[in-house]
From TrEMBL:
<feature type="domain" description="Methyltransferase type 11">
    <location>
        <begin position="113"/>
        <end position="161"/>
    </location>
</feature>
<dbReference type="Pfam" id="PF08241">
    <property type="entry name" value="Methyltransf_11"/>
</dbReference>
<keyword id="KW-0489">Methyltransferase</keyword>
<dbReference type="InterPro" id="IPR013216">
    <property type="entry name" value="Methyltransf_11"/>
</dbReference>
<dbReference type="GO" id="GO:0032259">
    <property type="term" value="P:methylation"/>
</dbReference>
<dbReference type="GO" id="GO:0008757">
    <property type="term" value="F:S-adenosylmethionine-dependent methyltransferase activity"/>
</dbReference>
<protein>
    <submittedName>
        <fullName>Class I SAM-dependent methyltransferase</fullName>
    </submittedName>
</protein>
<dbReference type="InterPro" id="IPR029063">
    <property type="entry name" value="SAM-dependent_MTases_sf"/>
</dbReference>
<keyword id="KW-0808">Transferase</keyword>
């Protein structure tokens, strides 16, 4: 973690302690912090937990693990888990409950393995029960190969929990490998290191590429009261045309 990030973290936790502590209107369903409201990012105001840094997608993912069919006990507890681009707060929860837990990343340091999600030949077939990759595939040149690799290393009956940035109401995923200029990528895909912008066809791509059965979980699965309390949906919609207002958790099942 860099000096700036550390300083930001300190300021955030101070803000949490002194300025946002009451009244207790929102609660992070991951770290249990409670307060007036969450902090903002340049994409979305009031969405980031000042204590653990969780965003809407992380809290939605955690909420999804409360659903009967995808419960924490069924998907995480006692399982063999591979976690790509691991978020600290999720990492701690998964590591404590899993039978085997490995973190991996191709570009960022701090993970146990340097691993390309599109080429995981260091693992034999059927190695893991669960793979978690939040906002990873948009960085991967051959995402179809990545989906096939995810399917291959999962054991039959295993799950992948995936999130990707999506342009709201875009039907078909858009990519153009000829766009290589970081500024152009930022303008078209939303970030300088993103290689595509996903549309509503993401679950179909997963099915076609690798044969996954995909369940899409969004805030509509949960009571309105819980959505507001845990901020499972942005309280203020971003007007940025590339913002993902309508976050979804994709739970891909290998039969
Ligand atoms: Zn939190």
């Amino acid at each position: 973690m860099g000096v700036v990030q550390k300083a930001k973290g300190k300021i955030n936790s101070l803000a949490a302690r002194f300025y946002l502590a009451s009244p207790k209107i929102v609660q992070c369903n991951i770290c249990q912090w409670e307060g007036k409201h969450f902090l903002g990012t340049h994409w979305h105001p009031y969405t980031v937990c000042p204590n653990c840094g969780s965003a809407v997608r992380h809290r939605l993912l955690f909420a999804a693990l409360n659903l009967k069919q995808f419960s924490f006990n069924n998907l995480v507890a006692g399982k063999k888990i591979l976690h790509f681009a691991p978020e600290n707060i999720l990492s701690t929860k998964f590591k404590n409950a899993a039978a085997k837990y490995i973190t991996a990343d191709l570009l960022r340091s701090g993970s146990e393995m340097k691993l390309d999600i599109a080429n995981m030949s260091s693992f034999p077939d059927n190695t893991f029960d669960l793979l978690v990759a939040c906002d990873v595939l948009e960085h991967v040149p051959d995402h179809i190969k990545a989906m096939q690799e995810i399917h291959r290393i999962l054991s039959p009956g295993g799950y992948a929990i995936l999130t990707v940035p999506q342009k709201d109401h875009l039907a078909t995923t858009f990519e153009d490998p000829s766009i290589v200029d970081p500024k152009e990528r930022e303008k078209i895909f939303g970030q300088a290191d993103h290689l595509r912008i996903y549309g509503d066809d993401f679950p179909q791509i997963l099915t076609q590429a690798a044969g996954f059965t995909v369940t899409v979980v969004n805030e509509s699965e949960f009571a309105e009261e819980l959505v507001k309390k845990h901020v499972l949906f942005p309280p203020v919609l971003s007007t940025d045309p590339l913002a993902t207002n309508y976050r979804k958790i994709f739970i891909a099942h290998k039969s």
